[in-house]
Amino acid sequence: MRAVVVTRPGDASVLEVAEVRLAGPGAGELQIDVVAAGVNRADVSQREGRYPSPPGVPEWPGLEVSGIVSAIGPAAERTADDRGSTGPGAAGTGAPGTGAPGFAVGDHVCALLGGGGYAERVVVPVGQVLPVPRGVDLVDAAGLVEVVATVWSNVFMLAGLAAGETLLVHGGSSGIGTMAIQLGHALGARVAVTARSAAKLEACRELGADILIDYTHDDFVERVNDEAGGADVILDVVGGDYLDRNVRALATNGRIANIASMGGAEARLDLGALMRKRGTIRSTSLRARPAAEKAEIIQSVRENVWPLLESGAVRPLIAARFPLAEASAAHRLMESSDHIGKILLLV
């Protein structure tokens, strides 16, 4: 099959389409014929040689896909009763021994991967697969799973954002940011965002953001403290010197969820300031989690977020679509930060 491979660590030009081999599905796994793959910042880091695939995972990039189930490993198929009650785009209610919803060949699905999504086919544990939400286009669904799982697991499952609290989202116009805004707004939180231009901030406002901060000339610490009395939860993709500023922007009992370090991996931390705020910091990586933890997150996403997508309260926001052969162009757009929402590769 064809896949986009990294010929050597480097800039976007090192991405090339090549023939690769992929084993079929094993016990508890599905094979998916890929329709589209999401492009993420982590893919850029992998291309640069800074974020290799975990052991046992294909070495080509890609953390999320949408597509059609084409083969099923043992203990991953639907029960006989389930097959009669659902069709493409909706999974059954159970599969023996999997602890996750079952699927059948032909189902329209989207999936969270440890890697290997830039390809014509993927094999993935059934616990990391979701039916495409009703009303969502199969292609657009490729931009859902990684961002939804990241935001839901960090902002809601770990940091416990509640209705009436304030959420501060850094990089509000990114794929992660646009989903965090929508989920926060839909679930009753007040949302503050940072972005770098009026156009990006306007897009954030249309998605439900309440406090719009242009970080090129506004002090987000001052704005959030003045307008909200501090943030109860901060979703941080920057790291570096933002850590100290995030602590100063926290409300009492506030929580920082750090998921990336685009601004640097090292930071200064005033422990006294953190203690006075009674604040907490959680730093996580979704890709490195064991399969059982990913399955738990995916199940919680299905129960809590999929109804919001099917009602239209939350939607995937797609910035651009590129053919698989133009993965280099997709990466260049990602690195430019000129996009609003998700970037997809069409397979």
TrEMBL record:
Database matches in Pfam families: ADH_N (PF08240), ADH_zinc_N (PF00107)
UniProtKB keywords: NADP, Oxidoreductase
Chain intervals with Gly residues compositional bias: 86-95
Source superkingdom: Bacteria
Alphabetized SMART domains for the sequence: PKS_ER (SM00829)
InterPro entries: ADH-like_C (IPR013149), ADH-like_N (IPR013154), ER (IPR020843), GroES-like_sf (IPR011032), NAD(P)-bd_dom_sf (IPR036291), Quinone_OxRdtase_PIG3 (IPR014189)
Domain Enoyl reductase (ER): 10-345
UniProt xrefs under PANTHER family: OS02G0805600 PROTEIN, QUINONE OXIDOREDUCTASE PIG3-RELATED
Protein name stated in the entry: NAD(P)H-quinone oxidoreductase
Source organism of the structure: Herbiconiux daphne
Species classification: Bacteria, Bacillati, Actinomycetota, Actinomycetes, Micrococcales
